[in-house]
Amino acid sequence: MKGIKSGFVALVGRPNVGKSSLLNTFIGQKITITSDKPQTTRNQLRGILTGADYQIIWLDTPGIHRPLHQLGKQMLKQAQTALPNADLVLWVLDAASGYTASDQKVAAFLQEIKVLKMLVWNKADLLEPEVQLPEVPGFEKVFLVSARTGAGVDKLLQAVVAALPEGPFYYPPDQVADHPERFIVAELIREQVLVYTEEEVPHSVAVQVETLSQRTGGKIYIEANIYVERDSQKGILIGADGGRLKKIGTAARQQIEAMLGVPVYLNLWVKVRRNWRNNERDLKEFGYWEKEKK
After folding, report:
1. How do 45-50 and 54-60 pair as beta strands?
2. How far apart are CA 244 and CA 205, in angstroms?
């Protein structure tokens, strides 16, 4: 389609640099969860931004890190397989943290990817005025942005659109994500688990939506299981007299209602699935197993 630009843009970087926050800012609404805890993103989510003469398919990838279990290996594999097929890679770094040893490892990894790349320093709002960001070799275009305030995002978006090839719209103009509602609902529940729990519990949690149906009066009924790996983690999640689980459910319900635009009844159960992060069957059931390319 002449005059129309479209393409796939991968957001890559180490955990907790704000890739998901940046994606939500681009889209203009919340389609992926965010947290200050590392490795929040587990699946590759496609966010879709359509303008009058362009469509960008954003690939939000799990943070590049050293995997400690099968779940971590699958997350790393998703990040690695997304990049070679992208039209453009945005390498997102934390401006407040500077250029770290972990970033140097990501840089070495990116050098092997023969795709157009841009460097994006995020969290500009946390950068002290007197701090000078280091030059990173190999990047002609460098941007300083804040996903939280939106500063610099428009300029970055213009550069991304300019770099896209001509091509058709891959999705309907009003579609903003490629994952079904069940996936996003499960992620919004998991986000609140991250908010209300500490230590090892967040990384041991998987959420599976069992029921999502519309009842009389337009209210949505949702039943979901929260899986942990140990009985002690189940106790932490539920809390005294069920208090923590109630807080998680209330906060998740509010987020889901904001997304769906209708009242929601949310029923949560906490169950133990021992060592699920190292179990191939469980990882496949929860949607975390990267399919082998034929």
Report:
1. antiparallel
2. 15
Measured distance CA(228)–CA(202) in Å, rounded: 9
Cα torsion at 90, 95, 98, 102 (round to 10°)? Answer: -40
**What's the half-sphere exposure (Cβ side, CA atoms, 13 Å) at 219?**
10
CA distance linking residue 248 with residue 245, whole number of Å? 5
pLDDT in tens, 77-129: 555 666 777 899 999 999 988 888 878 877 877 887 788 999 999 999 998 88
- Residue 294: HSE in the Cβ half-sphere, 13 Å Cα cutoff: 0
Write the single-letter amino acid at 34.
T
From the list 8, 119, 117, 121, the residue with the least C-alpha distance to 58 is 8
Structure-block tokens of residue 54: 């362009």
Write the CB contacts of 231 (distance below 8 Å, at least 6 apart in sequence). Answer: 272
CA neighbor of 282 nearest in space, from 225, 211, 244: 225
Q: Which amino acid is located at 172 in the chain?
A: P
* Alpha-carbon span 251 to 192, nearest angstrom: 7
pTM of this structure: 0.62
Rounded distance between C-alpha atoms, residue 277 and residue 77, angstroms: 15
